[in-house]
Amino acid sequence: MSDDGREYRIDYFLSAGECNAQSVIPMPTLVQRIIEVSTMHANSTGIGYANLHKRGLAWVLSRISIEMDRYPGINEHFSLTTWIESANRHFSERNVMVTDGSGDVIGYARTIWVAIDMESRRAGDMSAIIDGVPLGDRPCPIARQAKLQPVTVPDMVRHHRFRYCDIDFNRHVNSTRYVETILNEWGVEFFDRNEISRFDIAYMSEIHYNDVVEVVVRNDCGYSEVEIRRDGAACTRARLAFRPVGPQ
Amino acid sequence: MSDDGREYRIDYFLSAGECNAQSVIPMPTLVQRIIEVSTMHANSTGIGYANLHKRGLAWVLSRISIEMDRYPGINEHFSLTTWIESANRHFSERNVMVTDGSGDVIGYARTIWVAIDMESRRAGDMSAIIDGVPLGDRPCPIARQAKLQPVTVPDMVRHHRFRYCDIDFNRHVNSTRYVETILNEWGVEFFDRNEISRFDIAYMSEIHYNDVVEVVVRNDCGYSEVEIRRDGAACTRARLAFRPVGPQ
Description:
Two copies of one chain form a homodimer.
Chain A: E1 7-13, H1 27-44, H2 49-54, E2 57-68, E3 77-87, E4 91-100, E5 105-117, E6 122-123, H3 127-130, E7 156-161, H4 175-183, H5 188-193, E8 194-203, E9 212-218, E10 224-230, E11 233-244
Antiparallel strand pairs in A: 1-3, 2-5, 2-8, 3-4, 4-5, 5-6, 7-9, 8-11, 9-10, 10-11
Helix pairs in contact in A: 1-4
């Protein structure tokens, strides 16, 4: 953590066993790391799980947007640095910078965390604890997430059931598992030729153990849109922009 | 790493977002950590990915056995310490000790890593690099893995297709994904009442992207046996022993 608590950094090493078929960090792992560094920073400034739990409150991840110039590969060191851009009693904007082993910036993420009351599962009030939380002043050059629209006239619809290992300590589907479910709409060969330049996801309502969902994809708009629906209602929406990669 | 290179330790902190429905470390994450500490130790003693890759060799994880007295929970510190018990040109026996934040031992793992020639995908020869690798002398009190037998007269058979996010840098299914696929045969409520006291898994042949497998389970033998089969041939076998847990 920086001396004034405004920033928090974790250094990582990417072992071979963690890498995806393209020998770089999988997007779900990157999302996991973003959640991790955010959690550690929150813990260290008194707005973490332990302090919130006592008050019946929790942070729920509402949106993530990630833009990567390149992805860390096997045996590479990389670091995530996080800071809060803004915070009020209902939500906070938290950013993350990804740097490589040489300290060069290789990507950014923007996240939105919403306060909920754990009992009612509705909007919570962070007034009592959010005052005085130090804000960072580092710029985050990627655009905020635009509102993700419903996916109309899909190209593909697949059914998927969430199982035991998809469920987290809140008893609903883990944030990273939505990312996996979305990426699994494409194949290994597609990702040999294309990598994600920008990934946006909005978590809208919780999915539970054994829920069967529809995963709906539309590709023909310059990017790809994905919606995870249960009983016809959107639970998660995502937008993926790809760029071509050279032969591996 | 210890001064003589015999042992390697990594300290972890378990954040809330990493935990399973029972608010403890998920078994697939524990397996991932075991692979990670093993990889880091191998890298640090010159028998890691980079040195082997140059010689067209790789370590392939063949078996894991894990016995846990208890599992680390939310916001707990824990550590994995690894050492090589024996090594020859074809395989090595590597053990892992799990300790909690107070330094108390809470579990052990035994692993077997086999040398393969990356081109032929057959047995490799580690003679040139394995000599002089320091062995640890810490005892590992859990039993070696007994040969896992075929699952006859199964209670349940489920079909499963492996997708993009299941595939690792070797272009086959990631070791942890077999563990997930096996655990997914049970539900959240079962794991509320039972935890795994011992987990054995043997990796027999590689599964690839888009492969459809049968997951076969038999429960009536004092423990549970699982086999993942493709075209009728076993690719992975596992044995799980459970013990009851108190109400959450």
